[in-house]
Amino acid sequence: MEKLIIQGGNRLEGRVRVSSAKNAVLPIIAGTLLASTPSKLLEIPNLEDVGTICQVIESLGVKITRNEADDEIIFDASTLTATEAPYELVRKMRASFLVMGPLLARKGEAKISMPGGCAIGARPIDLHLKAFEALGAKIEITEDYVYAHAPEGLKGTQIYLDFPSVGATENVIMAASMAEGKTVIENAAEETEIVDLLLANESILIDFQYMTEVQARRCLDYLDGARYVLAGNLRRVASTMYLLTPINVVVNIEDIRLPNDVEIAEYDFDMKRNR
Question: Taking the chain, what is the end-to-end CA distance rounded to the nearest angstrom?
Answer without folding.
Answer: 34
